[in-house]
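Hi W.,

Here's what went into the run:
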Amino acid sequence: MSDAGGAAKPKKVRGTVFVEVERCKGCGFCVEFCPPRALDLDTGFNKKGYHPPVLTREEDCTGCDLCGLYCPDFAIFGVIIKKSA
Amino acid sequence: MAADPRGVLTGQHYLDGNHAACEGALAAGCRFAAGYPITPSTEVVERIAQRFPTMGGVFIQMEDEIAASITLQGGVWAGKKALTVTSGPGFSLMMEHVGLAAITECPCVFVNVQRGGPSTGLPTLPGQADMMQARWGSHGDYEIIALCPQSPQECFDFAIKAFNLAETWRVPVMLMMDECVGHMTERVVIPNAEDIEVVERNFTKKKPGEYKPFDAGDGWVPEMAKAGDGYNLFVTGLTHDERGYPVMNHHAQEKLVHRLVDKIRKNADKICEWEEDGIEGAEVVVMSYGITSRVAQRGVEIAREQGIKVGTMRLIVAWPFPEKRVKQIAPTIKSFVMPELNYGQMVFELERCVAGMTRTVLVPHGGGEVHDPQVIANAIIEAARGKN
Amino acid sequence: MTEVAINPVNPYLRMDRMPSIWCPGCGIGTSVNCFARALTQSKIDLKKTAVVSGIGCTGRVSGYMSVDSFHTTHGRALAFATGLKLGNPELNVVVYSGEGDLIAIGGNHFIHAARRNLDVLCVCVNNFTYGMTGGQVSPTSPATAKFTTAPLGQFEEPFNLPYLADSCGAVYVARWTTFHVRELTKAMRDALKKRGFRFIEVISPCPTLYQRRNRLGDGLDAMKYYQEKSVKKNGANTSELRIDFQSEITVGTFVDRERPTFADAMNARYKEVLGPRYVPCPDNYVPPQAKGEGT
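Here's what came out:
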């Protein structure tokens, strides 16, 4: 990524989430308790008929993994994306 | 393999059956015991509590027999040889965990010093009324092994045998003593450690990932592993597959439970043990076990004095039952006579095996004392004359 | 850009057994997440870790964990764990079960394990009901709430679990809800590092049975209730931690003390009395024939 040089701004940490769609049971814990509210439940269904989460506001995700900590079905987790120098 | 000499009190002793059973367990390598006090069995764990600390054993008195009967299984999965000791009411409380030991193939020993029942019954007096419970007491289909000592020496010897059978077949083994045998004091000879044959646990040498804890392969009994060895064991009381994973269907049930049952039934010839005498040409055969076999011996002698040809068959292993031998004998005699300290338990198994080929006569006794030998003799005489 | 990312919880689970049996919105899985992270953070040896459960929804936890797992009989997890721990003192033994299992049918073992200070971590997921059997009244069911076996509303006094554990001598007592994932993780981590009988109560939603029957919404509604009605009071007097129907829930670490464990006390006593004659477990005796046989 390219904005790593020069500027005095502190590095902005960004993150993302990985969703194992078929493991989701659509409880909504991750969406509700995402600190930056970056997730929504998908309008579509997985095979079992649940709405899995999607990262609709990727720019807001900090990769804090609170979604991963809440998910009772081990279907989502967050990771911090470290900027390469 | 020879016994650990630290557990072997080599020499001649004057011991009661309860103390002798304890010494047998120690000689067999038992190093974990969980108990709960109950008459008339308590001396076994009392002696264990005294003896264990100098030989690396752990004894704990649990809060009840339900706990004791599963705490010992925790000890087994930690790698120990383990036993629990109880009597009538405590044995009833332990039944669920006999089933757990059966389905998880946990090698362990339950000692039951039988007393009169039902319920609190006769705590200080003998009975043999738990023989069917030992076999059928837990729900579901399973098999166990039960041994019946008739003397303190046999309490010692059979305690070792019980552990060896448990390790060989990965089943709960019941040492079915009774109050008389438990409290009778006689000479007990404890051999040198190197002369005691002890079966060690068959721990797997497979690597984690290759090892399936409930896969018996072409044999009957899976290799074992213990907690802490890196195998990620999964042990459950649910019906499970070879990996130990629960599987809720009739295929898994058939595969698992059929093996649990067959590993004993199909190997009964290797497990069954009895003593017999004078069967050839006998008119009547007296079948007995435990303390009753000693009383019956006198009854047999009285009958023989009257000229009756009496054979004897004494069960050492009561379960599995020596069905084959009974079927050989049955057509050759007029009657089986079976004295028991109950109103009919093992006699029903005998009757099933006899299958109408001859008669079976029960000499019942509710317990609280042993039979009058004359009563047994009378039953033999009447059976020989075809009267009862 | 990246290699395949793996859920940090995966190495702790038997992935071939997923998905779990737990209902959508059930909190047991959330507590397992916290437990898995606590295992990482505490750096304990997983090969020497065993999870023991009884029967019930939470009783399934042991079987999903990729460590030595023992799914025992109903109520008897602590009794089994007693044997496992005393038989091999090197093991880290965790008992993970529900309140019906640990406190109703297993109540006797619970009070005695705490009294003896058995060296196990006991995690009790409390969802106020028997989930596996369909929503019957449990020993923590709050008054007036409805259950299949209390259709007109529960009227018995519920157990206050931290008070019970404290009274019986537990050395660590905490209560968190499945909303408090960070606190719960930390509590589990701290407890894993401690010795003695450690008790963590986890208040968890049961949307299918407890919530639905009592018109309390789904799992998420329960989580919001925990968020709004939980009061953090570390060191609170455990006698004041009773939970009533939809009342405030006091959470926190209530007890953190030291006391000799069962094995400590046993070893000390036997050493005192027997001196060098005492041979503690584990027994390292190797029969002479086994030496040098290469097997």
